Amino acid sequence: MQQFEQSVYKLIVETSTNLPGDVRRAVKAAQEAEVAATRAGISLSTIATNIEMAECNVSPICQDTGMPTFIVHTPVGANQIVMKEQIRSAVAKATKDGKLRTNSVDSLTGGNTGDNLGPGTPVIHFEQWEKGEIDVRLILKGGGCENKNIQYSLPAELEGLGKAGRDLDGIRKCMMHAVYQAQGQGCSAGFIGVGIGGDRTSGYELAKQQLFRNVDDVNPHPELRQLEEYVMENANKLGIGTMGFGGQVTLLGCKVGVMNRLPASFFVSVAYNCWAFRRQGVLLSTDTGEIKEWIYPQGSESPMGALAAKAEENGADAGRREVALTTPLTEEQVRSLRVGDVVILNGEMHTGRDALHKYLMDHDAPVDLNGAVIYHCGPVMLKDEEGWHVKAAGPTTSIREEPYQGDILKKFGIRAVIGKGGMGAKTLKALQEHGGVYLNAIGGAAQYYAQCFKNVNGVDFMEFGIPEAMWHLQTEGFAAIVTMDAHGNSLHVDVEKDSFQKLGQFKEPVFK
């Protein structure tokens, strides 16, 4: 087993940087279903470019590499204690090499371990089986989509759908509602794994296990196959679309599993996964630990080059208004922007996530933020003798900053906020009163945006950890779409209202 640790390291790198072939085929199908010049079509082409860049750069597809979760099947007699230590060592090495973001933090203090090791991190599940080889599977599920997981206890009353009973039709309603409630915050278009039954814990585990199935497989259980086919067809009629921008494709995959339950409990658990569906697996030799076979088709078998090229064509033909701005921004510039405009940013911008926003509520900023742009981003950063370099830098989900954002905008004179998934009524009101704008970047497109940062001008609050630190980045050609403007308009509100109306058409029973 001398090669076991190195094989796990290779698995981590492949999972983080190279989207599997079955997922790529789903993204291609979505791109073909959308009109090229729409927001959804352009976003999918950007996603295709990002997938290609991540593979070429051997860098994370998305900067949020999630909670590394391993499922390991071993023959009887395998030393799981040694294997666990070697998996942890491989995770630490991959983190040091910039293939994983430093994501493990102390739940009480918020302190970042810096190596993705700590109580409960990474997650490793061992199971014995009768086969003579080792099966190691890994899923990297980011926090944005993890936050859109949802569990239902039937019977329940669901908004827009009415009563969901303890039957197949009630399960159907839960699945439709799960897609609706995610909107664009989980980086749609996405995938769902559904667990029927169990208790609260095992139900979620079953749901996540469904995400290890191949996107192209067919459920052998007739009733579950019916559910999967129904939801795949009808969830895409909700009109949520890529990034919640509206569109024809909201769901890329749906997998359902079932287990027994207690008579008193009926749980339907849904694990939501973004388009950056990063899971891979390897079969290893029991003698040497070397890789014998990759379990899912590797990404290079389904190149995204054609879609990436199409992204360039779409940019010229979209017929949308593009506005190039250099920071710091003025109120006049910002108030001239409207929902749907594409803003191309140059100059310095500053990253800021949960820890920074909480800090700024009661303290001064370390730099002048008048007219500044704040980017909701926790980048992957590496340092060498020349200084810091941005390795991956897509947006994080913005709604977490809703309690702070409006106050911070007005307190410091910030004019633009970049993130994904939109923000709420408090922020929208502040944008209107103060003269600010919310720009939606493409969630998961960590390589696409990393290329826009030409220099790291400085960093503050490293004590918060690399993802939560405030990075000051010199920017060139950073493109994002105005989805909340200074006139009280919000694309996110419009899409949610429209999808809620469409959700109502699925209220009547389907399965008897």
TrEMBL record:
Mind telling me which Pfam families this protein's record contains? Answer: Fumerase (PF05681), Fumerase_C (PF05683)
- Iron in keyword set: yes
Under which main EC class is this enzyme filed?
A: lyase
List its EC numbers.
4.2.1.2
Quote the InterPro entries the UniProt record gives: Fe-S_hydro-lyase_TtdA-typ_cat, Fe-S_hydro-lyase_TtdB-typ_cat, Fe-S_hydroAse_TtdB_cat_sf, Fe_dep_fumarate_hydratase
What molecular functions are annotated in GO for this chain?
4 iron, 4 sulfur cluster binding; fumarate hydratase activity; metal ion binding
**Recorded superkingdom:** Bacteria
GO biological process: one example:
generation of precursor metabolites and energy
Question: Which UniProt keywords are present, listed alphabetically?
Answer: 4Fe-4S, Iron, Iron-sulfur, Lyase, Metal-binding
Q: Where is the Fe-S hydro-lyase tartrate dehydratase beta-type catalytic domain?
A: 313-494
Does this UniProt record's set of keywords contain Oxidoreductase? Answer: no
Known catalytic reactions: (S)-malate = fumarate + H2O
What are the residue boundaries of the Fe-S hydro-lyase tartrate dehydratase alpha-type catalytic domain, all occurrences included? 6-280
Per its UniProt record, the required cofactor names are: [4Fe-4S] cluster
Name the protein family: Belongs to the class-I fumarase family.
Role of this protein = Catalyzes the reversible hydration of fumarate to (S)-malate.
In terms of PANTHER family, this protein maps to:
L(+)-TARTRATE DEHYDRATASE SUBUNIT BETA, L(+)-TARTRATE DEHYDRATASE SUBUNIT BETA-RELATED
Q: How does the annotation summarize its subunit structure?
A: Homodimer.
Q: Which NCBIfam families match?
A: ttdA_fumA_fumB, ttdB_fumA_fumB
Protein name per UniProt? Fumarate hydratase class I
